[in-house]
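Class prep. Protein, please:
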Amino acid sequence: VSTQSTGKSPVTAMKRQREEQQSPAPLRKNFTFLPTVSHDRTLLFFHPSVETIARRIQALHPDKIQLGSCSWKRFPDGTPNLAIGTRDHTEMQTAAKTVFLGNFSKPEDIFEQMGIIYAIARGGCRHYQVIVPFFVTGTMDRVDETGVVATAMTLARILSATPLCATGPAQIVVYDIHALQEQFYFTDNVQIVLKTAVFLLRQQLSKLPKEECERVTIAFPDDGACKRFQRKFAEFPVLTCSKERHGDTRRVVIKEGDARGRHCVIVDDLVQSGGTLLECAKALKLNGAVRVSCFVTHGVFPNESWRKFVDNNLVDKVWLTDSVPHISEVVKDVAPFEVLSIAPLIGHLLTGDEVMELPE
């Protein structure tokens, strides 16, 4: 540095040069800051068929859960015309967690939901959960002869193709999957999380008068249900039924336990035709049960098979969740059915808050 041109000593000039190098450059007017991540906010997208459940979840946790919006239209040829709201697409990048609540109970709705599921994952969300309360193909999980297709594995592969989000694999959450081994049909591209809804039954039993609660026995229609759910009811006596073949017919008998003088509550993951539950109820009544109720997480009831339980003196109460919305909507005001919403359970899963009861 020339001291003649600056009129300053070399030491002063070098000091000033070092200060200029160390000082930060001024911010430009068009400088864009990275979005700030909200550490307690969950952005919840949903399929229209489960909008009621989504809104119940948000109502239980208004300060922690924000509902996202999607457009579920169709082109004239019937193919899906889908879009994620522009504002919500940006919100995904700042929310601590992004969630899609789906409904796979109708196979014809699965394709359009997968389109949104994949798009959200690619949208830059930080932590991603896909909640599929009812894994619809769960009952088709085995190949007994050549040519049979295990569609439970097919659907697991479709969900396993969900793209990675910004921080890694998406979580796939299923409530009371029909067979526990189906979790191994999913690949390592996703994390499978299995949950149960039997806590809703425990809530109902806790509301019974003490004398009536002491008469409750938890009954299982087969060994599989017993192994799966028995530990959830450790304080209750249990009873297990089984099917026995007599000639050309099969009938349900009590394999283990005593039904005499008891209020037997049959617990299973799902009901379809209802035949097994009713045969089990008949066996319990024949063996001295004074009352029989049922709890199932998923009420499938194809071909209006729920009507078998109406005006039937075998079963006093049938509890089921709203995991199959088009069925729960039909039976919600029909005796002996009572629909228990899974919204409090999902709200607990998303926020970590205690399981809250819906207002009456």
The mean pLDDT is 89.
